[in-house]
Structures are given as structure tokens and as C-alpha cells.
Amino acid sequence: MNNTVKRTLSGICFLVVVIGCLLIDKYLYAALLTFMMVTMLHEFYRMTMGNLFPRTRALAIVLGCCSFLSLFLVMAFRLDIRLVGISAILLLVLMSSTLMVKDKADFKLFAFLYTGLMYIGAPLTLSNFVVFTPNGVFDGRPMLAFFIIIWASDVGAYCVGMLFGKYSRKLFESVSPKKTWAGFWGGLAFAVLAGLILVWTGLWTYPWYHAIVLSVIMHVAGVFGDLFESQWKRVCEIKDSGNIIPGHGGMLDRFDSALFAIPAGVIYLVIIGLL
Fold this sequence. Notes:
Blueprint: H1 3-24, H2 26-49, H3 54-77, H4 85-97, H5 111-126, H6 128-131, H7 141-164, E1 170-172, E2 176-180, H8 181-201, H9 208-236, H10 251-271
Antiparallel strand pairs: 1-2
Helix pairs in contact: 1-2, 2-3, 2-5, 3-4, 3-5, 5-10, 7-8, 7-9, 8-9, 9-10
């Protein structure tokens, strides 16, 4: 099959799954985010640690899932916030388990366990604040709107970069040689336009000026998220984090922007009192 066709079909199928899980039911949302957590942490640990310490890596993945699911239960069913403390216990277990490794030559690799939890686990866990109201009502539309901003930014950066990139300076050539300032500004324009459309369609109920600021913040954060993952791949000397999505690479390749953009969006909405 032609790679372009394969990439398009797999991308459409994946979008349908993501949109369906966000709009249909909170349990499908939880299943989707848990799957993303497991897959991205696995990809990151394989990228940075190879096949070393499989049991400890598995424990770290369980910790990431536990953090997300415990906050999900608290938000969805208005349970005691102290339930999230289970994650702290598992963190102590994870840290203690590293002491039992007999060969200490590669002990420094365990730092990647905590990096992965901060880089991937924390942003996905924070997404619960986007999809649940303080009363525990699930609404996946705000998260879908977040993804629309991120996707619009990516599409704009790609299209404008392809058209005008050869006339523009490189953005971070040492990290990602193909990214240009033309692509950056193109992605920004598409993100802001998408934000205004979301307000116009009612998917976002924020004032239009907050939508613009939020779109700008998420675009900038998403660009750095993309570059951050590119830096990891360059250091680890790999092209893709995985191959779970035909023609697109790994889950981490597809959601690297979101790992920076979602927390940035959440923080902004919290600061201005809209979340």
C-alpha cells in the first residue's frame, strides 16, 4: 500500500477512535488515556533504557496508570482526594525497588523512570481536570477542543512550512532540521483561527480574547513539546518512538505536542478562573 494512503487511513481511524472515546462515555475516555499512558511510557522507557530492568519499568508504568485512574475516580465519583495518595505509596515502592538491583553499573538509568512519569504521566493525569466539572459531570468536549487546537497547529506548521520553509530561517536546526520559523507562524495562525472557530461553534464557552490567548499558549507549548521529543530521539539515535500507528510512528510521536500543550492550557485556565 502507498505510504501516503496508509498514513491517511490510519490517521483517520485513530482520529475517529480518539473523538469517539472523548464524546461518548467517561469510561471510554479512561480506557483511551490509560492505553495512551501505557504505550507512551513503554515507548519512552524502551527508547531510553532499552530492554534493561523490565520489572522496574513495568512498576513505573503501573504507577503512571494508578496516578491517572485515582484522580479519575476522585473527579468522576467525587471521592476523597486522599485516594490519590496511593500513587505516592507506589512511588516509594518504585524508588525502593531500585535498591534491590544487584548490578549497580547502570543505576543512573533509573532516572529515566522518574523523567517518564513527569514528562508523560503528569500531563495525562492533569487531563482529568479538563473533562470533569467540579460536580463530577463528564464532558469530553473541552479536551476535544484542546486536541483540535493542537492538530490545527500541527497542520498549519506543516502546510506553511512546506510552502515557505525554504525562504525561512530554521527554528531549532540542531534538534529538528526541517522546522522553520515560517512553519511556526503558520501553526500559530491556524491555532488561533481554530480557537475562534471553537468559540463561534460553542465548543468553547470562553470569551474570544481568552480563546486567542489560550490558542497562542498551547501552540507555543506544543512546539516545544515536539522539539523536546525530537531531542530525545536524536540523543537516543532513533527515528520513531514506535510503530503502533502505521505510517505515523509511535504514540509518543503523535502526542508529543499534547504533553506540553495540555498542562499549559490547564494552568492558564486555572489562573484566570475558567477551570
